[in-house]
Structures are given as C-alpha cells and as structure tokens.
Specification:
two-stranded antiparallel sheet; 6-stranded mixed sheet; alpha/beta; 7 helices
Length: 201
C-alpha cells in the first residue's frame, strides 16, 4: 500500500478519516489489510435481496475486519458517529445510488455523485482522501491512498460540497485510468444514458 501515511496522519488529527473509493479491484482486501494495521474501516453498503444474502455479505466482511452499515435512514448518523469517534470510514462514491447527488464532469460527460463524502468532511473536520485497491499481479493486491483534499471552508457549504465532489470525481478518473478493466459499475452511469424517468428526477 502506497500512501498509508496519509491515513495515519489524518487519524492523528483526531477527527476521523474519510476514504473515497471507486468500484475498482477489490476494496475489501484493502479494508482487511487496514484492519491488521489498527485502522479498522466502516463502510456503507446497499441492501441486496434476499436479506439472508446481505447478512452473509456483512458477516464475511466482518470476518475480514470491516464493519458494514446498511444504506438506510440511519446510516448517515452511524457514519457521523464513527467519524466523531475519530475512526476511519470508507465510502464507495462513483455511483449515485439514491439519485440525489451532485452533478459533476466525469470522463468528459455529466453524471452525479453522492455528496456524502464532501458533506461529512466539511461538517466534521475529518480528513478526506481518495484511494483504490487493484487486483494483481497474480494473487497480489496493490493499494494507493492519495494526499488529502483541501477541505478549507469557502463561501458556502453548498459551493464547498460541489467543489469537493468535483475534485473527488477528477481523482477517481485518475485512479480508474490506472486499471480501467477492473472498474465495475453495472448500471447506466452518465446522465445521458439513464432511463427518461431518472433523467427527469
């Protein structure tokens, strides 16, 4: 793992760390490694059906040292409490699951990305980094944590969230370009590709 010190430095500041991640490679292996470094990570996951499959998913991640919070009306409060306790949160943020995200430029087209990472960092003072875990070569995994983003407050919370979300999108582009064949987002991502109802929303 390159850039582990960015997480350690952020944790030393006492306000927790947010690691913004793309759906690339195997982020769970990164979380498992971080657990061995006394940096256990909490993440949010979309519920899947049947419930027994989601429970199995949560149990498997727990065995690797990851805490998974189901995406629902309580997940924001749980993540906020985790950061206020000075802990590490990993958020996959190249999919706008709820359709309420911030519009950004991403690989030359418009899409939306969740505002959560930026909003949480601005409200809590948590360090905000980007990173990815790549599969290979062979059975190895290689991870990269990039330097923290500038979360200094500007004119308004809305403007700061928009600026930071675009900066995250730009960084995720760079991370994906390192191994585009490992990027897995199995849904219409760009606004132009979404179903008409979703575009209107």
């Amino acid at each position: 793992m390159d850039g582990l010190h960015h997480l350690r430095d952020g944790m030393a500041r006492g306000n927790g760390v947010i690691l913004a991640l793309p759906h690339i490679g195997s982020w769970e292996y990164g979380g498992a490694f971080l657990a061995t470094q006394d940096l256990p990570m909490t993440s949010v996951a979309e519920r899947i059906e049947p419930p027994e499959l989601f429970d199995y998913f949560v149990e498997q991640r727990a065995a690797m040292g990851l805490t998974i919070v189901p995406l629902d009306k309580h997940s924001g409060g749980t993540i906020l409490s985790t950061l206020r306790a000075g802990k590490l949160v990993g958020l996959l943020c190249d999919r706008d699951i709820e359709g309420t995200g911030i519009e950004v430029d991403f690989f030359g087209e418009r899409t939306t990305m969740p505002a959560g990472p930026a909003t949480l960092a601005l409200r809590t003072g948590a360090t905000l980094c980007t990173g990815a875990v790549y599969s290979g070569p062979g059975s190895d995994h290689r991870a990269l944590v990039e330097p923290p983003l500038d979360t200094a407050r500007g004119s308004s919370l809305r403007a700061d969230v928009a600026r930071l979300t675009q900066e995250i999108a730009t960084r995720l582009e760079g991370l994906i370009r390192r191994a585009p064949e490992q990027w897995h987002v199995f849904q219409p991502l760009w606004i132009a590709d979404r179903p008409p109802v979703e575009k209107a929303a």
